[in-house]
Design brief:
37% helix; four-stranded mixed sheet; Aspartate Aminotransferase, domain 2; 438 residues; 15 strands; Aspartate Aminotransferase, domain 1
Amino acid sequence: MRAGNDLSQFWMPFTANRQYKSSPRLLVAAQGNYYTSHDGRQVLDGTAGLWCCNAGHGDPRIVSAIQRQAAVLDYAPSFQMAHPAAFELASRLTRMAPEAVDKIFFCGSGSEAVDGALKIALAYQRAIGQGGRTRLIGRERGYHGVGFGGISVGGIVGNRKQFAALLPGVDHLHHTHDLARNAFTRGLPEHGWELADDLERLVALHDASTIAAVIVEPVAGSTGVLVPPKGYLHRLREICDRHGILLIFDEVITAFGRIGAAFAAERFDVTPDMITTAKAITSGTVPMGAIFARQGLFEAIAQGQPENAIELAHGHTYSAHPLACAAALATLDVYQEDGLFERARGLEKHWEDALHGLSDKPHVVDVRNFGLIGGIELASRPGEPGARAYEMFTRCYEAGVLIRVTGDIIALSPPLTIQADEIDKLINTIAHELAKLA
């Protein structure tokens, strides 16, 4: 038997395990906008955990709701059974969603939500007599979780190259990142709306009759905060409508206030056929995901089947888990009672000004922002891609702020509860560490 805790047994996700375990960083507590490190330091959370703790940490209203639920009903299946909170939550979510949305399918994560939405798209096309529509379209530099469906439509090479057996019949739109024309844009870039027409190229290549759905992040987060050009999402919606292609918004990051509205679909005034969510639906407290589906998708799939038939052969052991439902309901209460979506919108200008104050700092080649999301792109060290940003990550952590890096891009997404002076602390710390960076 092994003695003690030598850290070796936990195979950590998306982590350089050997590097990390040579100098581990451990978080032992969290409250409000701060983590406590294992050595007793307060660390300002500049990433809302992992894009998810929008209501901050340890809100007693959410904690109490989870505790009460665990004492009353710890688990209930959702296969041919249910519990009241699942229906209450679905009803509340549809009231928040775009008007055309009328069905919620629960799962346990963003990855599960994406794979479920892709399956619903295929089932819908088959149900309406378009069974030849099996092709799925993602986008370069897109991130859609780690299921085989998600990495197939995703467009981040590091997430794809180790796994040869991806889904067949998948293609990708060109990404929208145009550093030459849009560097240091505040908010939505002016250039690049025409990149939505890349979907017309794929239609011409494959024929519309073979394409089931297109999935995009309204604002791409994990690939380094890629903000859509003005008019891009509207144009993508128009092309999908013209060719009978379903449009899926992956809002695992953008939903629930991250960009100053309940959904990016609301902020951009573009209603997709499905929205995938997770993360902030419970403010990160209990794992949960949800697929929002527009009117008619369920009815089309159910049409012609016997009433006692299972309409969709899909689901999860933890679909609508009671603790997750309790956490989500309490989280929605907190968002509403504290006006956090509106608060995020009100902080946008201060956030934008603070971020763009880094534009002239060493190594910075771009700053971009939308809502309470920020991306700071650094010039790569010759022959060492990602090394400069990773050094910033470790330097900032030691200096008392938590940032996230992807490649040589710093990605920021603080809790919606962050204060203006905490924004200044976050950005000033980054500026201070950039000045010392080789």
